[in-house]
Design brief:
Distance between the termini: 44 Å
Helix content: 55-70%
Strand order of the largest sheet: 1-2
Oligomer: single chain
Order of helices and strands: HHHHHHHEEHEHEHEHHEHHHHHHHHHH
Number of strands: 6
Strand content: under 5%
Radius of gyration: 33 Å
Structural class: mainly alpha
Amino acid sequence: MILRYADPDLTRLCSNLHKYGEWQNVELAVLEARSEVGEITPDNFTQVRDFLNLQPIDENWLDKEEKLSNHDYNAFIAERRRHLPKRLQRLFHGEMTSYDGEEPATSRIMKGTFDLTIGRIEGLEVALMSQIRKHRFTPRLERTHGRGAELQSVGRFLITLLTPLAQCRENVVIARNGFDYSKLSGAIGAGGGLKPEVQRLALAKLGLLPFNGATQIMPRTFHAGAASALAILASWLAKMAFDLWLGSRDPYPLFEEPFRPKQKGSSAMPWKKNPITLEKVRGMARWARACAMAIMENIETPEGRDISQSSVERLAWPDLLHTVIHLLSSMTKVVDGLNVYVDNLARQIAEMRETFAGSKAKELLAEWLEGKLDAEAVYRVVQLAGFNVLEPTYAAAEYRISGPPESLEEADKWTQRVCVQVRKPKVQYEPESFRHVIMTGALRPSPLLDISTEAVSSWNQMLCELFQDQEKRRCWNEIFKVSYWLKNEEDQFERVLGK
């Protein structure tokens, strides 16, 4: 992984020096187990252990030896044996094959990297929980299919990001636990080297359990499942980033990622605060999935083993882990410092002209007009009201009807007229609202819908009669309050945050 995206803690865990240290831990665990079953003397074990602990692994020497032998584990054995008396050298790595040393070490390293990943997921969850509490009552227009739908709080929106993230964490925990298993069962996995009792004892000392179905290596189903869990996590982080990115668009951004005082956005357009972190998360998630796919392909390692598996893992695992850790760190910083613009959230709700209550309005009208209008007609009443209130007005309406400008002069003229009206309307008026168009029987035909003038007139008469009932007017007005929609979230907040 390039330094720009590398995590220092993960770099240490994935380093060759840390790997060599874990190889030595495996070798010493085997020697200790052999001493406990009487294959070698306890004194021989302690001498080997003490000699090696006094001599740190010389990575440069090992690298030079690897270039000669073209085998990293044999180079490791040579580097360690050179510090032992000749009478003890045969004991080090005795009765073992290279992957008896590598597989338990890999399991321990993977458990460490996954523990680190789980901790970073939990950090992002904490950041989300803080924002959820902060924005419990901040109203927001939710969209489906990119169009305005109903209201929910920003806190509830963040719950929809938090809960699947927790599910991803559980998947990563399960994947991490898969590395509790490993093997010391020899060149083909049939136990031709170390005795079963030695295998069990040594693995237990390493915090591992024996796996009975190994060949020379562990089946890569464990690795594939772990990589898949990380790829799913990366994809969910990309989904989180995309939702926040969509809310950060001009002219009225709802959210913005943190922007440092001396930070720059576009080189050409200095006023822009480009959401580069959110975009980076979305892009790097693609690389995480690519690495995971390469690791999953290793399930097909032929027969006992070949090098195709290990060569891929040397590249794909560090990149996948660094990528996911970087995504988690980036999203945590975004969520921790997220700017939520309550004014623009309110502006967006206002510009929907109360159509956010349309689904409940449809149900009430269907109940109140039962026997007078069928369900299809009620649907069309609500649809027409929505179309009416969201139509452009004044200069904007004229511009839409006139069609596209046919010259530069026309483009200037129409754009200026619309902009002036937006900045300072010539006519002060209360914009139409969905609530009042229906309640006052003010529906009008729309060129976008095939509804006759006679039908519209008939509906308006019914609506005027309907809303003479004061109790119905009270119920009707209630569904247009923000509190009507946000109160339904209470159960979810209690389950997520507790009472």
